[in-house]
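Dear Dr. H.,

I hope your travels went smoothly. While you were away I took the liberty of generating a structure for the chain from your last submission, since the lab meeting agenda had it listed for discussion. I wanted you to have the full record in hand beforehand rather than looking at slides cold. The sequence, exactly as received, is reproduced here:
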Amino acid sequence: MEAPWRLLVRQGEQALLEGRFRQCERLAGEAAHLAPAEAAPGLLTAMVCREQGRAGEAEVLVRALLVEHPDVDEAQALLGAVLADLGRDGEAGRQLDLLRAGGACPRSPAVTALAAEVAAALDSSEHAEALDGPLTGHARVFAGTHGAISRHLGLVCHVLGRWDEAEEHFHDALEANRAAGAPVLVAHTRRHYAALLRARGDDGDWEEAIDLLAQAATIYRRLDIGRLADEAEAVLRRSQDLAPAGGCDSVNVFVQTAAGWELAYGGRQATVADVDGLGHIAAVLRADGRPVHVLELVDGAAAGGQLAAELRSRLDEVDAQPAVADPVAAALGRAEGDFLRAELADLAGEASTVAPSSAAEVGDRARRLVALRIRSALDRVEDALPDLGRHLRRSVRTGTFCFYEPERPERWRVTR
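The corresponding predicted structure, in token form, is as follows:
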């Protein structure tokens, strides 16, 4: 019979694959409580921190883990990946050398996968050459939370200049990660594939790369992986800087009417039923890049009660959505449901301790309410006009201040 802590770790790994980060952290914490001497729960906690873009926190966690478990090769490899994320290339390279000296990579697909990510981040042909053979031996393996090893083989082939081979591996990885219902891994694969196409530069590569990167950015933004979303969107903005002038002659429409909201973007039109979030988006578009404080959008005094009611309403909507065939879309739906449940639990915990009275507490409730409303409104927009929904998801920033930061200049006719 499987030990309870191992079952919790497996459930946590599945949650991580699906982008249910809070659930993964909770399960890893419970597993660590049941088996404090085991390395796997701590490793999972560090991995979820890394996937969320919390690289500094992940470094602290993995170093503490290595104090207790210095011989866990996957933890050593994860430390190298985290150091590469932090831009500390020299230290990351030394971690790769340590793994090579210990012969860890040929034995473990997970270790080899992390090592490949480091080699790609360092653009190290020496390390990539050393990893090519071990990765080829694992090419058809799906290595748990690291996903299809073919993605990592694609990274190595890219570094080595074998671009056509890399493309085949990224194709294989996309299919395997999509079939596994792993949106984060699908986004990673699209981002790496886009980098390959931008480097290769064959006919049609640029356009396909921009499309792949935009799709990756949308997933990152939906799962609140801010660092990778920002990086992808920065590349998209630079790509628009290189586009021919005159690309913003058309006027997009975001206008409230008696029937709802009339929307037009990219030559397509639709009308969407009114919800509060659409009004918030209109206000942000109308500000034309000026930051809009959330208290300009909602009544701070009423935000706490409204937030609880709207979280429950949105959760009911998510739970009532019909099953979808696309495993990635289904996973994103489960991730949103988990996020909403966690927000409701947090809100209940806050209410049981102290009522919000300070300006900071009121502002925080307002921030969360506006973010929830805009997220829900974007789902409606994306259903009606997919291109517009994806554009706004990448371009409308929420927080204490909300603002519109498009990849290229856009002209809008906005009224309410």
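Two observations you may find useful: The chain has a mean pLDDT of 92. Residues 251-415 form one domain.

With kind regards,
E. W.
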